[in-house]
Amino acid sequence: MGIDFNQLRQQAESLVEQHGDKIEQGVEKAGELVKGKFGHESQVDAVVDKIQDLIPDKQQNQGDQA
After folding, report:
1. Superkingdom of this entry's organism (predicted)?
2. Positive or negative CA dihedral for 65, 43, 19, 59?
3. Whose CA is closest to 55, among 31, 32, 21?
4. What percent of the chain has pLDDT over 70?
5. Are 27 and 54 in contact (CB under 8 A)?
6. Which residues, at least 6 apart from 57, have a Cβ–Cβ distance to it below 8 Å?
7. What is the DSSP string of 43-61?
8. pLDDT of residue 56
9. What phi, psi does 5 have (nearest 5°)?
10. Residue ranges in the chain whose pLDDT is less than 50
């Protein structure tokens, strides 16, 4: 008896697909908090953008705009 990592991955992917917009908002808020406390705006923005690019809804929306 062990951990079924494939099942965990599928559940995580499902949650990201269902709640991608909320995750994007949370990442954006976290980025603003970090920038407010530590500065480094351009680096934080780059990390936030990369994280948001990993969210399926974000990738689809960018594809529609191109």
Report:
1. Bacteria
2. positive
3. 21
4. 83
5. no
6. 17, 20, 21, 24
7. HHHHHHHHHHHTSHHHHHH
8. 79
9. -70, -30
10. 58-59, 61-66
